[in-house]
Specification:
This protein has 4 helices and 8 strands. It is of the alpha+beta class. It has one domain: Aspartate Aminotransferase, domain 1 (Alpha-Beta Complex). Strands 1-2-7-8-6-5 form a 6-stranded antiparallel β-sheet, covered by helices on one side. A two-stranded antiparallel sheet has the order 3-4. α2 (56-64) runs parallel beside α4 (135-148) and α3 (97-110) crosses α4 (135-148). The radius of gyration is 15 Å and the shape is globular.
Length: 155
């Protein structure tokens, strides 16, 4: 089932209404609680760009398997400042046959923990942690998906 999130985005993953309600509650709680920074965000370099070190292994694996990524972050603040406190983790990739196959692979493995949105105007997928504050587990699960993904072109 495909459902619209905004006019220009289509949700491809299949979270139940109860999970969306939980996510809304988590967002309200996250906004209201104090943000204590324990350690600064670790960064790495990937193809000349500064990225979050938590996703470096995943991006390297996807690159070796010819799945082109555009943006990634292991935590986005409510003001969309990646160095600020983490809200959720995401990877954005150009939509093509190979990235579509990877997205399907990741959805089968991560199920309700993965939010997948397709942006038709930009022709790209946004894969993010469905649950707020689950950035480390999202990064670990994405790295597992990337390490086990094998692309088989359609014949």
């Amino acid at each position: 089932m495909v459902s619209p999130l905004h006019d220009e985005e289509i949700v491809l993953s299949l979270q139940k209404p109860a999970l969306w309600n939980r996510r809304k509650l988590e967002l309200v709680q996250w906004i209201e609680r104090p943000k204590i920074k324990l350690t600064p965000k670790r960064i790495a370099f990937f193809h000349g760009c500064t990225i979050d070190a938590e996703l470096h292994g995943t991006l390297c694996l996807l690159n070796r398997k010819h799945v082109a990524t555009e943006f990634s972050c292991a935590g986005v603040s409510i003001w969309d400042e990646p160095e600020d406190h983490s809200l959720y983790a995401y990877i954005t990739m150009k939509a093509d046959e190979r990235s579509g196959a990877f997205m399907q692979w990741a959805m089968r493995y991560m199920r309700h923990r993965l939010l997948v949105v397709y942006e038709p105007e930009r022709n790209r997928y946004d894969l993010s942690s469905f649950f707020l504050g689950h950035n480390r587990s999202f990064c670990q699960l994405m790295e597992y998906c990337a390490s086990t993904f094998e692309f088989e072109p359609k014949k």
